[in-house]
Amino acid sequence: xxxxxxxxxxxxxxxxxxxxxxxxxxxxxxIKRAVKSKDLNTYITxxxxxxxxxxxxxDEKGNFNYKLPGVPLAVKxxxxxxxxxxxxxxxxxxxxxxxxxxxxxQHLWDEGAILLGKLNCDEFAMxxxxxxxxxxxxxxxxxxxxxxxxxxxxxxxxxAAKLTPATIGTDTGGSIRQPASFTGTVGLKPTYGSCSRxxxxxxxxxLDQAGPMTQxxxxxxxxxxxxxxxxxxxxxxxxxxxxxxFKSLSSNIKGKKIGIPKEYRVDGMPxxxxxxxxxxxxLLKKLGAKIIDISLPHTKxxxxxxxxxxxxxxxxxLARYDGVKYGYRSEGxxxxxxxxxxxxxxxxxxxxxxIMIGTYVLSSGYYDAYYLKAQKIRRLIxxxxxxxxxxxxxxxxxxxxxxxxxIGDKTDDPVSMYLNDIFTVPVNLxxxxxxxxxxxxxxxxxPLGLQxxxxxxxxxxxxxxxxxxEKELSxxxxxxxxxxx
Amino acid sequence: MSIDLKTIxxxxxxxxxxxxxxxxxxxxKDLNSIFEFIEALNKVDTKKVDPxxxxxxxxxKLRGDEVKTKNIREQILKNSPDENKDFFVVPKVVE
Lengths: 485, 95
Description:
Chain A is built from 17 helices and eleven strands.
């Protein structure tokens, strides 16, 4: 039993294929552990009865050639699941039951995976600590009262606590990579246009991207094989030739050129992170990569530009929540006051703040000064990367400017919370792929990650580099199961 | 520049979010600190820069307008906070 939950996704699949483990044994093991792990508050909705039923069916007549044969998985509650409540961590969707399935989750089930349930997240994926969810804070298994990061906090926490062998999250400004870094797990944000956005509750459509969160890099490659597919239902899905990521994994990175951007050495960054970054550089040199100093001069403008672009898109996307066709509705003496009361009661504080920012920057007289300005800055940030990629194959940076913090530490000051995403946001603005891998720990024994940023559509390169680093690092979380009841 | 209370109430109105005076004051503080942070962008000269609206800078593809799901009316209406037969119900708008 304890063996099952300690297996990586790919090891688990091997055991299923060799018939050493059944889907039912595995599914039951994860369910049993989830029931004992309620204190972490990772799940918003569980679907355990159906999962057991599906596992039974798989064991009876399942297809063992699938990529995820009979593997139980929990996913972020931002993916619409047909006939199963999908809340996006919000009161306004607390009773919403979709009549359709997101493309990305459909790919998982088409390859034999079984849904365990829906994982907690920041409300509408707006947050960096999983403290904005209507369904309460998520605790990280890394330490008591420690945040798992966000917005895919429930996913990161569930993965690190071994409540699911792998999971998927979404990343608009760092929501996969930052929680992965905080929990000692691997998080990959694919190139914009790789994974379909169809059926994912929209936050900022020009930035949102789904991606795998896994125990190691091989598992991330395996999950990417399943979820990265062209989809006509997403008008910005890109029809490029996708790799056979898992099979093609290679740890030979000799001669690869890795850029080190000086602008990521920010004021007040803890020494531990600086030395972690140095360790990463040393390791890459040892593996035969060539280290090149580069400059991404507009880096410091990425976060302020993001806080115009993302809220602007969010204010437009979230205009649909009006209490008429689905979701929470409040009373009002007329139609307008019904809208206003519904949205006032249905949205939490952070979501309201962002809708207000977005509405303001798009409003008459301010559009050019803010929104257009931010889009121009966005161009400059992308140009920086384009220029850098003339001389390097990938870029190495820290994933976050600090390790995980305590619940409540940053909730009073929105800007200090936003600064968490300082290293991850430029990637979303430029549509690039990036991965966070666990590399070391700080003095509190909390995990620290490094981020590798790649060229658009070159996920394989990114996976190969992180795979070769991971082999040398042998990072272990060594969690003590303190939350188990 | 700073955003005053009157502007906050105006944005709330545009956003269709009702706020009381206490909430408006909170938002005034928060939004001003966020915009102070955003003002950093003014230091950058962008006169000759084209805006980047989307990473996928292509014309959006068209597809046929075909019905692909059938008989989901009940399922759709079930999510409605207030329904009456085949309709979504809202407060009275015409006297």
